[in-house]
Amino acid sequence: MQKISIRKFLLIAAAAYAYVGLAAQTYHVPANHEYQHRNLLASQTPLMEHMKLENTQKFIQDIEAREALDDNDIFSAFWDNQSVNPYGSKALIPDHKDINVSSYVAPVSSNNITSEFGYRPRFGRMHKGIDIKLNIGDSIKSAFDGVVRIARYNPGGYGYYVVVRHYNGLETVYGHLSKYLVHPGQRVKAGQLIGKGGNTGRSTGPHLHLETRYMGIAINPRAIIDFENYTTHRDVFAFDRKTCEKAVNYAPRYSKHKAKYASKSKSGKKKKATRRKARRR
Length: 281
Ligand SMILES: [Zn+2]
Fold this sequence. Notes:
Strand content: 25-35%
Bound molecules: zinc ion
């Protein structure tokens, strides 16, 4: 009797050991791999800050060559015609990435920004784009070359909207259109007509809701685009995962209002205080 229970105990113990061992293995291997992968990526990506101006042209050529190589990957991996962010938790998003934005074309012939990117305390959520006032029927153009990923209708949110994935890795979202003029899978050029401006979905007046995303992460469009001058601040946008939600204020006249464009702050009080200050100026 006793012998059997000892044998039973040993069997259970062995089984438990094997299970724990397996669990530990399946946990440790990918974590370690991911760590190595991240380190590798970090060491590969050059930072714009270290570049001299005369190297910029060569630098853009290198990025263009890499974009051509990445072409197949970009338009097959994490690709669907439904979700604005199809990347989910499986995507390995680098901390830094130099993105060639030199071929930018302004999507709409208006620079009247009516709502900024950032946290909206009134609604308790992020506004992941920037709103540009327009007239219904105004032309909406693709900001860069790319392939249309989504063209559909979302009555409670974006209304008629288009998402284009670009060769540079960015995605742009165009919301509240009166209609779209492209279909998923269609290749578009920078400046090509993709829809007409409107007031569909959750919208309180004709405007374009414009988002700029990298691997699903919403970037403050002001960090990339100089809306006042219908161009980009620089030819290469240095994506930084930690700061991409904030505007990078290259133009001196923005610097005073930095707080105004800052995204969600940890303390609600602090945010209110800076807003009040900004209003006083
Ligand atoms: Zn909006």
